[in-house]
Structure formats: structure tokens, C-alpha cells
Amino acid sequence: MATRKTNRPKPRPDAPYEIYSPLATRSIIETFTRKLFEQPLHPLPPTEAFYGAGVYALYYTGPFPEYTPLVGATEPENHRPIYVGQAAPPGGLRGATDAESTGRDTKLFTRLWEHAQSIEAVTNLEITDFQCRYLVIEHLFIGLAEHILIGEHKPVWNKWGLGGHAPGSGRAGQKQSAWDTVHPGRPHAASRPPNAQDVTFWRVQFARHIAGLPVDSAAGEAAADNVDEAGDDEREAEREAEREAEREAEREADETV
Question: What is the pTM of this model?
Fold first, then answer.
């Protein structure tokens, strides 16, 4: 009697295929988003200092016309931050940090104060129209959490840059950002050449982005440039803070000898 050969079946092209992982992108997004938006709302800047590094979200509640859809969007079921960001601990860029040093630092609190100073410097925003949430987290997850929150919520100020520092010395001739064109008044921006587009153009682009509509191609290119430049400035500021901390530690060591 002949032996019948059994052919091994193959999955159909349309067969369902899904692998659950607690570290899958959607699971991580839901974890970070839920945890941050469970935190209480605070005025910007927070009235009490605190320790730690982590991520944060800024909310707008004022009358600026282009931001009207964001007003009141602060609850967990309807949260639309105008900006999200992160503050890494000293040494975090080099990986030279630990949980203890993260807990002793006030990096997150300081970053919120820097943003408050930027907003207070401009002529058409009021700091009392802003609130914030923040989450102190393990330093290894700070960059990932910020990346996830920006990708999930696409805040308008992340696209065209709030930032918190003057541009580095290598870009002293850089033109004013879209943000500084819409919200003039920051000292370091006033001395720079004007943006290639006027304020009317940028206000329209801000409104379109918030509404989920396509923006002008020139605005899209400027957004990409802004992300690169803002990242460079933040990294340089972080490095300078780290260098200053190292110099301070050396001075203290010399005094104890």
C-alpha cells in the first residue's frame, strides 16, 4: 500500500496575523499618554518647585483666535496640548546618569519655568492663559515618551517650535522662527532677520494644522528645519548645563582638599 504524502499547509494571504506584546507601540502609547494625562493640572509655571526629570504637556485656555479649538481640551478624554516636551537629567545625553541623580535634579521644573519666561516675553499671549501637566519618569524612557506624545497628539507648537533657548553661536544669522513671527517679543528673536513668510501666512498654517488640514509646502519644509534646529539648540544647552555641573563639582572638590 502506497504511503500518502501529507502536504504542509500554508497560511492564506488574508489570514489574520497579530502578536500581542506589552511593549508594542500601541501599548506604550496608551501607557505614557494615560499616565501623563492622569496627572493634575498646574499653572504655568508650577507654583512649587519639585525634583526630577521627565515629560510635560502645555495647555492653552486664552482668546488667541487660531488656538480656539484647543481651549478646554485638558481632560483625559479630550486632551489637546499646545506643546509637549521633555527635560532629561544632567548627563542624560551621554547616558551618564542614574535613578538617584535623576531624582535630585530639578530639570523638569526648570524647563517649565523657561517656557513660562518665553511666553511672558511675547506681546500677544498671557501666561495666566496656560496650564501644564508633568510626569517624572525613569530617564531611560524620557526620549521615547516625548517622541510618542508628539506623534500621537501632533501639538502645533511642536511643529513650528516654541523652544526655550537662544540659537547656538553657529546660527547667529538664522531667521526668526514661525513661532516668533506669530508671537513676537522674545529678545533673542528680535535681533534676527525676519522670517521668509509673514505673520498672516503663519497664522493660517497654525490654524490649518490644529484643524487637521494640509499646510502649505513652504510651511512643511520650515517645520522640518525647525525640528532639526530646535533639537540642536536643546542639545547644546543640555551639554553646557552638564559642563557647568562638572565645573561646579570640580570647584567643590578643590575646596575640600
Answer: 0.75
